[in-house]
Amino acid sequence: MTDRASARASRESITGRRSRVPEQVFVGLCWLALLVPLLMLAVLIVDVLLDAAPRLSWEFIIEYPSRIAERAGIWPALVGSVYLVALTAVMAIPIGVGAALYLEEYGKRSRLAGFVEVNIANLAGVPSVIYGLLGLEIFVRLAGLGPSLLAGACTLALLVLPIVIVSSREALRTVTPALRESGFALGATKWQTVRHIVLPIALPGILTGAILSMSRAIGETAPLIVVGAAAYVTFVPDGLQSQFTALPIQIFNWVSMPQQEFLVNAAAGIVVLLAVLACLNAGAILLRNKLQRRNLA
Amino acid sequence: MTASFRACHAAATDAAYVFAQMKRKRIGPTNSIFILVGGMAALAAGCPNSDGERSGAVNVDGSSTMYPISQAVAEEFRAETGERATVGVSGSGGGFTRLCRGEVHVSAASRPIKPSEREACAEADIDFIEAPIAYDGLAVLVHPDNDWVESMTVRELKKVWEPAAQGEITRWNQIRPEWPDRRLNLYAPSVDNGTYDYFTHAVVGRESASRGDYTSSADQNVLVQGVSGDPNALGFFGYAYYAGNAERLKLVAIDDEDPGTHDGPVRPSADTIQDGTYQPLTRPLFIYANREALDEETVEDFVEFYIGESAPLVEEVGYVPLPASTTELALERFAERATGSVFEGGSQIGVSAEQLLKGS
Fold first, then answer.
1. Model's pTM, two decimal places?
2. Of A41, B149, B331, B333, whose Cβ has the fewest other Cβ atoms within 10 Å?
3. Nearest by CB: B244 against A86, A90, A260
4. Interfacial residues of A (vs B; Cβ cutoff 8 Å)
5. Which residue on chain B is closest to A146 by alpha carbon?
6. Which residue of B has its CA nearest to A201?
7. Do A234 and B72 touch (CB under 8 A)?
8. B127 and B237 in a common domain
């Protein structure tokens, strides 16, 4: 009697009706966890779109900023931001991926390597203003670049470098050692193995890290202000030495103007920034998916 | 130059070649990324700038108060001459630092240059030309539902804001017994703001000396939000911010109790700020131009335009232009290239820009 009862109890505890309730609650909570941030994002986007609606037009994108809110556009800031991100990517991604490759594939496990690793992780958490001050001293003053597009991009590249390194290393670690060993077994050199086996497989993951780091770079304001990005420029940057402004700086300036109409411009600027970000990410994701499919084939 | 140009050219052809090969499927995507990134890096490093060393623009930096004026001037200057200008917002102090490092041509300031900043300029061998541009009033404001305050004396303002008031003066009836026994909530710009410096100097008597228990913000729009949403609020900020939000705020008239000036309380307005009756909370705004940079024709034109033609723009962005006679004087001083500051003895309260220029 007691045996049977306990057997039934234990069966119920595994498959019985009672045990389904906690699971359903858990799934519900997970849904909630997914829904809350999505809902908040939707509310934010709808809110900013509603605010921006009266000002969003083609003119707003291709006009220069102005003291008259209705006439003001965002063109120099938009071009500045696109140049900045492109330059940052060109500098940060090759260096970051190279550093990650060295640390993962070539570097020996020494105390120095451990020290370097800890510091890279620490650097990822340093506030961005600090990078701005570093950039001001090294690139703007010592290297004599002045408050130029190149100095801004160098500073942003430093800022995102730790993120690129850390995420690239994670991606390289997902390549199973068996694949490397089969490369060696076939007589491939270390370089050939890395080049033809490890990198292609890790590339989608590396690109994900690159997307994240570029998204961070495009939204940064503080380091650019420290480096000397102008708040208002009457021209589009035409070279690496050119002075520049960027989208977040323009938005920040509009928010702090005395006239209320500029708040609408700020909202429209945010929409443009979001759109640029979405385009960048979409491009990178397309590229990643293409590479992933090739890996599977 | 030729070498770097060649490198640049090579990188560009490199990229074009990769694209062509990719189309023919000779190079896989991984390879192409390698080559492209390398090519772009070479492009970034090697391409000469079409304009050479400087980008040839007039550089202005300085106070956030001056930013709307500088922006308007740069915009109109571009419209009239096609020349380029940039405007930064490093604050008055930041603007002077960069002027004395020779990094900018013009520094726009909401206060006169300080002796320490003058020394920094002298050490770097940088002469500057000073010119008043406009007046700005500091408005004292309450919530529109506040029906008890019409005016305040400077002495009352001091009683509220001096450092000793911290934690002591917390209710309206402590300022004037006939005012209601309600909480007193204070709003003011943050301490790194020139507006705060001027207010404390004019009211408390010592720059940057005030109580600390108030709501502060570097963005004066936040203060507008604060005062317009709090019936017990008392705040101060730039008159331009009041002018942009007049229906949500109530101005307080200020009485300086000085028999030498206008009798009784004065409300800030374009007129009372310009003719100097709104005292002591009216301050002049300035630009400081690098004397040597004026040898460049563009910079000279820009500064002359800024001093001589900015009056309508000043009004448009919410500040108060100088009387025409003061602008004349400033232009004369500019034409003579009179260097140095008329504020050698430090900043002064309640003196018109014209008196200062004549006295120098």
1. 0.77
2. A41
3. A260
4. 64-67, 86-87, 90-91, 93-94, 146-148, 150, 199-200, 203, 225, 228-235, 238-243, 245, 253, 255-260, 287, 290-291, 294
5. B103
6. B30
7. no
8. no
Asked if the Cβ–Cβ distance from A260 to B50 is below 8 Å, we say no
User: Given an 8 Å threshold on Cβ–Cβ distance, is B71 in contact with A232?
Assistant: yes
Q: Which two tokens stand for residue A95?
A: 């260096």
Report yes or no: B275 and B355 within 8 Å, Cβ to Cβ. no
Q: Does residue B82 fall inside a structural domain? A: yes
Domain count for chain B? 3
Yes or no, beta carbons of B75 and A256 under 8 Å apart: no
In Å, how far is B28's CA from the nearest CA of chain A?
10
Q: State yes or no: pLDDT of B349 exceeds 80.
A: no
Q: Which amino acid is at B48?
A: P
Residue B18 has pLDDT above 70, yes or no: no
- Whose CA is closest to B251, among B272, B273, B266, B271? B266
Q: Give me the helices (H) in chain B, please.
A: 2-23, 29-46, 67-81, 91-100, 115-123, 154-161, 194-199, 220-228, 239-243, 270-274, 297-309, 311-316, 324-336, 353-359
Q: Are residues B73 and B185 in the same domain?
A: no
Single out the residue of A201, A194, A200 nearest to residue B31, CA to CA: A200
The answer on B264 and B252 residing in a single domain is yes
CB atoms A258 and B68 under 8 Å: yes
Structural domain of A82: 58-296
Name the domain count of chain A: 1
CATH number of the domain that residue A185 is part of: 1.10.3720.10
Rounded distance, CA A174 to CA A50, Å? 44
Using the predicted structure, report yes or no on whether residue B25 has a pLDDT greater than 80. no
Distance from CA of A196 to the nearest CA of B (A): 9
Provide the shortest C-alpha distance from residue A237 to chain B (in Å): 9
- What Cα–Cα distance (Å) separates residue B186 from each residue in A74, A161, B59? 36, 44, 37
Does residue B37 lie in a domain region? yes
Beta strands in chain A (DSSP E): 232-233
Task: Return the residue of B nearest to A94 by Cα.
Answer: B37
Task: Indicate if B106 and B183 belong to the same structural domain.
Answer: no
Answer yes or no: do B268 and B314 share one domain: no
CATH number at residue B348: 3.40.190.10
Give yes or no: residues B333 and B308 share one domain: yes
- Give CA separation, B341 vs A82, A282, B304, B337, in Å: 42, 56, 18, 12
Q: How far apart are CA B90 and CA B103, in angstroms?
A: 12
- Asked whether residue B270 falls in the same domain as residue B152, the answer is yes
For A46-81, write each residue's pLDDT tens digit.
999 998 888 888 889 888 888 888 888 899 999 999
Is residue B51 domain-resident? no
Q: Which residues of B235-270 are buried (b: 16+ CB within 10 A; e: fewer)?
A: bbbbbbbbbbbeebbbbbbbbbeeeeeeeebbbbbb
The complex's ipTM works out to 0.73
Domain containing residue B142: 137-274
**Which tokens in the block code for residue B240?**
């331009």
| Three-point CA angle A239, A160, B34, nearest 5° | 70
> Across the interface, do A243 and B44 touch by the CB < 8 Å criterion?
no
Q: What angle do CA B33, B38, B39 make, to 5 degrees?
A: 100
Q: What is the pLDDT of residues B267-300, one digit of tens each?
A: 998 888 888 888 888 888 999 999 999 998 999 9
Q: Which structure tokens are listed for B322?
A: 């100088």
- Nearest CB partner across the interface for B51, out of A239, A245, A291: A239
How large is the average pLDDT for residues A246-267? 88
